[in-house]
Amino acid sequence: MAKDRLLDFDEALELFEPVLGFEVHVELSTKTKMFSDAPNEFGSLPNTNVSPVCLGLPGSLPVVNGQAVRYSISLGLALGCEIAPSSRFARKNYFYPDLAKNYQISQFDEPIAFEGSVDVELSDGTIVTVPIERAHMEEDAGKLTHVGGSTGRIQGAEYSLVDYNRAGVPLVEIVTKPIYGAEHRAPEIAKAYVATIRDIVVSLGISEAKMERGNLRCDANVSLRPRGQEKLGTRTETKNVNSLRSVERAVRYEIQRQAAILKGGGTITQETRHWHEDTGATSAGRPKSDADDYRYFPEPDLLPVEPSLELIEELRAALPEPPAARRRRLKAEWGFTDLEFQDVVNGGLLTEITETVTAGATPQAARKWWTGEISRLANAQGVEASSLVEPAQVAALTRLVDDGTLTDKLARQVLEGVIAGEGTPQEVVDKRGLAVVSDDGALIAAIDEALLSQPDVLAKIKDGKVQAAGAVIGAVMKAMKGQADAARVRELVLERAAAVEE
Amino acid sequence: MSDIIRMTAAELAEKLSSREISAVEATRAHLDRIAAVDGDVHAFLHVSDHAIQQAERIDERRAAGEQLGELAGVPLAVKDVLVTTDMPSTSGSKILEGYMSPYDATVVKRAREAGLVPLGKTNMDEFAMGSSTEHSAYGPTKNPWDLTRIPGGSGGGSAAAVAAFEAPLALGSDTGGSIRQPAHVTGTVGMKPTYGGVSRYGAIALASSLDQVGPVTRTVLDAGLLHDVIGGHDPRDSTSLRDEWPSMAAAAREGATGQVLRGLKVGLVREFQGDGFQAGVKSRFDEAVQQLEAQGAEVIEISAPNFEYAVSAYYLILPAEASSNLAKFDSVRFGMRVQPEGGGTVEQVMSATREAGFGPEVKRRIILGTYALSAGYYDAYYGSAQKVRTLIQRDFNAAFEQVDVIATPSAPTTAFKLGEKLGDPLAMYLNDLTTIPANLAGVPGISVPIGLAPEDGLPVGIQFMAPAREDARLYRVGAALETLLDDARGHTLISEAPALGGK
Predict the structure, then answer these.
(1) How far is C-alpha B132 from the geometric centre of its chain's CA atoms?
(2) Where in chain A is the domain with CATH 1.10.10.410?
(3) What is the pLDDT of residues A336-366, one digit of tens each?
(4) How far apart are the CA of B408 and the nearest CA of chain A, in angstroms?
(5) SS3 (DSSP) at A69
(6) Do B324 and A55 touch (CB under 8 A)?
(7) Which of A37, B20, B48, B351 has the fewest CB atoms found within 10 Å of its own CB?
């Protein structure tokens, strides 16, 4: 694919105003699917979680999942939306082999929730209010695997396999209104918005919300308009943005790409674009125009969804605290400094740290691991920190450090083992033999040897220049292959140096 | 002809219950009849090869003293629009040739649970699109009264099977008259229940908001008995009503006493009294109404000004829904697959399959429906049609403030000749002039045979319609008129049908 020309980000912002919009799809973690009693489970063998309804077999009929409706109402309320006393499903008609019936049942002109807003906190503490147009219910499509091509995409593939396990999984699609005034913070707002949605659905307990699994998917709409122009520019819709980091990068990329085209006198094609995590670029998908004709009409197999006022109020009363309030509470509970807490929020790690603390870690230890080593490894691999390791494992790791089994340095090796799939932290410690050497005898022998082989250092220590002990400590730690507690070694070095003097 | 096949389902059920006749005997008698006459009639697309075994099990259960349903052991013909696990379900289309469903339609499941013995699957216009069964991909069914004539449609197979004594009971589906119009032209009884009264789960959808499954029989009581078996709420059909229904059979038995006609207010639709009705249809209808009046019914003329738009609205709503419902027939998961030469993309395979698998009437309606739903045309076509639908519902509401039932001829003409209207879709569509309003409004309608048209000696039916949920009223009134006419005639109308099969 030809490399896009990009304009410098700051120059792009000087010339153009970016306007954003997001469609976030949330897969609900209901027991069964949106319209059938087939299990809603991830990771099963292909085409095993299916019923006549998911396969669109002749004669089958959809039945609305009541749990999915309740989850959708809760989400709508958490987004500050109005809940429609009556909403309807429609059929969106188009032929595609991952769509068993060749129409998707989705809400069209009568969504269950509409007109809301979400407060999004940026790294400097600024609150941006993102206006929500609607949140509506729909069913997911199946999953196609293209086989035989080099790219895994349909172009060049010899054949394609289809798995209908995902067909009919309940989704809520959250659609924002156009977001103006984002300016140079557009990429950050994009990321913070999606992170906030993720926090909301996790706190509601209605979705696994794992972006890498597709539980939470973001389509980012970006358009640019020249400074001073009223009319909105032509937008593109970037799909396949499967991590918070990618959301930020993809928005930045589209701003720079579109700016380069517009500055050169070109025009933007209205189209979907695919984000490529590996190259950090977007590529053209299918052209999309407002004239796409899905021949929507009300789904005649379903009745309108008419939740009672009592149900809505019951769900409203059961809402968890809003993310902003939750953040304030957690910051106080954890006793983090402003800087520490911002680090956590920017890393999108609130949930991970909450869960790690729940699993028994101290807040400081949880913070240190998630914002430190785990984030570093995640960045290096270009993935989400949350996808690397479970909070419970991190908590177990911090306990091993706290009880002296591991030093920080050893713990980092254990973490790598856990990430590599070698088991729990304790199992990695056992398998790799990484526990701290706490036998003073072995340490003293090593220290004595090191002191004797470096008489000049010994002399300095005896002269009271304790900082010279560092060289001996280093030698001992090396001899112990790092499996010793450096503080204890230091104590012993000073002790033995004194002993030699006698 | 054996006595068994001449019995009504109610009579047969009684003899099965008293063990005068075994289920195996009843089943074998009907299978023999099918073997003798179906070569001429072609009511069946598939005849069960294990009906006898199923009948044996009913006999065993009865012998073991098990409490069985009232119709246990009575054979049943099943319209091919209903999916079955043990017989192919094609909906009259090539695209589903040999298709085996992994599940039974709810109505079939209920019939099996009640001990009815499915004999086979009956012929129909492809995907229930038609009024003559000539649009079946497997060749037309013939009218048992005159083998050169159509048996009605789409459920011509079910009506012909019952009229030709191949089955005492049949299941049909009615989207715009597919149960009632075939009943009219074959001298049988056909009932379209209130929308939501009978589960649609497992009925291959034509137009979801109009389709309704119902009984096709030779007597009103038999229809009521079958209705009681298949009706009632089904959690797998979101549009099925949660009502507790009265027994339709009990209503029919009550109606047969004749008392129900006294003071009954019968509405005649002014807009259905003009031209367009065959003279013999009109005269038999008028006589039947006079019979009702003679028994104390009060006849009131009502106006339903929007009924004249019903056919037009119907032919927008039906194709629109059908175009979407039929999209699933794409060869990806089941059914016919046509591989274009040299392979082809999935889109080309879908296209080639649909080109080869669908007949011309199906394609015509898919194109119509796709057009009617298209952006820019939606409001003018689908949107307007839905408004007409609301107006027709209001016409019914206004009428039912004045009358208890509405009566119309069940169809404008008697059975026409095979091939006569095949080249003229609009003439074909007008067959359903009087039956379509009930589907658009969701109200129940029943067709009851009232006699033969003098000019051609072919059967004529009367349609009664009642407010939604008042299905039992139709059984009462239908059975009352049926009894009246049978008593006057001294025998049933269907007994005048030709013997067939040279026996």
Answers:
(1) 12
(2) 440-501
(3) 998 898 888 878 788 899 999 999 999 999 9
(4) 28
(5) helix
(6) no
(7) B20
Q: Write down the residue that tokens 């339709």 correspond to.
A: B248
C-alpha dihedral, A463 to A466 to A469 to A470, nearest 10°:
-140
- What pTM does this model have? 0.86
Fold topology of A440-501: Arc Repressor Mutant, subunit A (1.10.10)
DSSP B9: H
CB contact under 8 A, B238 and A56: no
Distance CA B158, CA B169 (A): 8
**At residue A276, what are phi and psi to the nearest 5 degrees?**
-110, 110
Region of B42 (left: φ > 0; alpha: ψ -120 to 50; beta: rest) is: left
Four-point Cα dihedral B310, B311, B313, B319, nearest 10: 140
* Tokens of residue A314, six digits: 């019951």
Give residue A362's identity as a one-letter amino acid code: T
- Rounded Cα distance, B477 and B480, in Å: 5
Q: Outline where DSSP puts E strands in A255-403.
A: 271-276, 281-287, 297-298
Of the candidates A39, A117, A34, which has an alpha carbon nearest to the alpha carbon of residue A299? A34
Domain-by-domain residue ranges, chain B? 4-272+401-495, 309-384
Q: What is the pLDDT of residue A152?
A: 67
Q: With respect to CATH, is domain B4-272+401-495 assigned 3.90.1300.10?
A: yes
Average pLDDT score over chain A: 90
The confidence score (pLDDT) of residue A316 equals: 97
pLDDT at A387: 85
Average pLDDT, chain B: 96
Q: Closest approach of chain A CAs to the CA of B43, in angstroms?
A: 22
Q: What is the pLDDT of residue B502?
A: 54
| Per-residue confidence (pLDDT) for residue A464, from 0 to 100 | 80
- Residue to substitute from B210, B330, B366, interface A, most A β-carbons within 10 A: B330
Q: Under 8 Å CB-to-CB from B137, ≥6 apart: which residues?
A: B90, B92, B93, B94, B97, B126, B359
Cα B499 to chain centroid distance, Å, stands at 23
Q: Of A243, A249, A260, which Cα lies nearest the Cα of A282?
A: A249
What's the rounded Cα separation, in Å, for the pair A399 and A393?
Answer: 10
ipTM: 0.96
B327 touches chain A (CB under 8 A): yes
Res A91: pLDDT: 98
